């Protein structure tokens, strides 16, 4: 029962869309209807600016980490079950209850979840994203590499119970990037400016 309650809490926390909230606060266009149409930090960077994008990034990271901490500290979940709680936060970000089930792609929230499960794995995931993004300027490619590496990092640097939830996380995020993958193959994907 505690697992189910923790999953619901995590989903509801994940459903808080920082991109939409900060876009309303700063009076910039709704990221779901402007730019790439994605409610995430990269699109807010495109349509709003660095300050707004940084706030979205931090908020999305925190909600993933907080969901894991709640599962750990209040529900005493570990391993696979705690990984599922983190995955629920990512589902909330991608399909947010409060915003018509149209959210972001889940990368920053997944990074926050990974940080909460295994700090070193989260740092390595963020470093992988940064290395690819800085060298190629493709946020989508950096995101794909980072989420593919996350299960590997968690397998190496944690108890191993997080591996399959991290695979579920990666599969969902890769699915949400299907259009980006097509644009990368066609060499029409947008680059980001830092």
Summarize the main sheet. none
Number of strands: 0
State the helicity in percent bands: over 70%
Q: Bin the strand percentage.
A: under 5%
- Unreliable spans: none
Total helical elements: 10
Topology:
Blueprint: H1 2-14, H2 18-25, H3 41-47, H4 50-73, H5 79-94, H6 107-117, H7 119-136, H8 139-157, H9 163-176, H10 178-186
Helix pairs in contact: 1-4, 1-5, 2-4, 3-4, 4-5, 4-6, 5-6, 5-9, 6-7, 6-8, 7-8, 8-9
Structure description:
The chain is mainly α. It has one domain (about 1-185). It contains 10 helices and no strands. The longest helix has 24 residues, at about 50-75. The N and C termini lie far apart (about 45 Å).
Key words describing this protein structure:
10 helices, 72% helix, 0% strand, mainly alpha, 194 residues
Put the structure in a nutshell.
With about 190 residues, the chain is an all-alpha fold.
């Amino acid at each position: 029962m505690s697992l189910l309650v923790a999953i619901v809490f995590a989903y509801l926390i994940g459903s808080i869309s920082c991109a939409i909230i900060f876009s309303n606060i700063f009076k910039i266009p709704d990221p779901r209807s402007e730019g790439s149409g994605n409610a995430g930090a990269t699109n807010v960077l495109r349509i709003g600016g660095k300050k707004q994008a940084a706030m979205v990034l931090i908020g999305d990271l925190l909600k993933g980490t907080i969901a894991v901490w709640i599962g750990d500290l209040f529900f005493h979940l570990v391993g696979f079950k705690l990984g599922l709680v983190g995955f629920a936060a990512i589902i909330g970000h991608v399909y947010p209850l409060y915003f018509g089930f149209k959210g972001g792609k889940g990368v920053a929230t997944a990074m926050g979840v990974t940080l909460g499960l295994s700090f070193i794995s989260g740092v390595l995931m963020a470093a992988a994203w940064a290395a690819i993004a800085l060298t190629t300027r493709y946020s989508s490619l950096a995101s794909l590499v980072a989420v593919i590496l996350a299960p590997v990092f968690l397998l190496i640097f944690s108890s191993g119970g997080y591996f399959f939830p991290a695979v579920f996380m990666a599969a969902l995020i890769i699915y949400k990037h299907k259009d980006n993958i097509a644009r990368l193959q066609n060499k029409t994907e947008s680059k980001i400016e830092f």
